[in-house]
Amino acid sequence: MATKDFSASKFMSRLDALGGPIKKNRFSVEVTPPITMRSSIRADSINFLAKAVSFPAKTLAGTDFRYAGKYSIKVPYETTYEAVAITLLNTGNYAPRRFWGDWFNHIQENDTKNMQYYDKFVGTVTISHYLDDVESINPTKAAHRVTLHNAWPITMNAMEMTWESAEVMDFQVDINYEWWTDHWPGDVRASSITAGDTTGIR
């Protein structure tokens, strides 16, 4: 039987061979709103204010399948996806809040209450993560990049104000999407996963 090696140096050697540990504070978010949306705030002027974001998660929804009437096993029947949350710093001119408010108003006009056509209110959101040796924000140089397609804001959370705290104001926007693609440097193709799609990676 091979000897187990729990030494720190051996662990670090194996870790370095895989690229070493990576930090989660080097990321960027690029939002592309619908072409027909009108806003006085440019998305590229507030993208850098994203202080927290997550790569999308996925879950296999399952159901119980009885085998030969003796016992049941859990089997998957579809892949489900949750909205992606983006936390943004607010600014003195409320530009981030105004931008996302304009997107909500584009989906449903405040005055008329009319809903916009689906293909008229969706955009894209690209989330990129960088290694320490990358000095500028450039999604093509990211260690990992995910693009949310046909994305639109489903929730814009409240902003709390209180006399008890002088913390910087921020707020959260939840992004719904139809499918997402991911990319790693050197890949010949990007994986594509559609929300609700049972075929998996295409």
Explain what the structure shows:
With 202 residues, the protein is mostly beta strands. The protein has one domain (20-55, 82-194): Pnp Oxidase, Chain A. The protein has three helices and ten strands; from the N terminus they run H-E-E-E-E-E-H-H-E-E-E-E-E. Residues 196-202 have low confidence and may be disordered.
Which CATH class?
Mainly Beta
Query: What shape does the CA trace take?
Result: globular
Question: What is the beta-strand fraction?
Answer: 35-45%
CATH topology: Pnp Oxidase, Chain A
| Strand runs, count | 10
Q: What can be said about the biggest beta sheet?
A: 8 strands, antiparallel
| Rg (CA only) | 21 Å
| Helix proportion range | 10-25%
Q: What is the multimeric organization of the chains shown?
A: single chain
Cα-to-Cα separation, first versus last residue: 42 Å
Number of domains: 1
Structural classification: mainly beta
The appropriate CATH architecture is Roll
**Mean pLDDT over the residues:** 86
H/I helix tally? 3
Topology of helices and strands:
Layout: H1 8-17, E1 27-32, E2 50-53, E3 59-67, E4 71-80, E5 84-89, H2 95-107, H3 118-121, E6 123-129, E7 144-156, E8 170-176, E9 179-183, E10 191-194
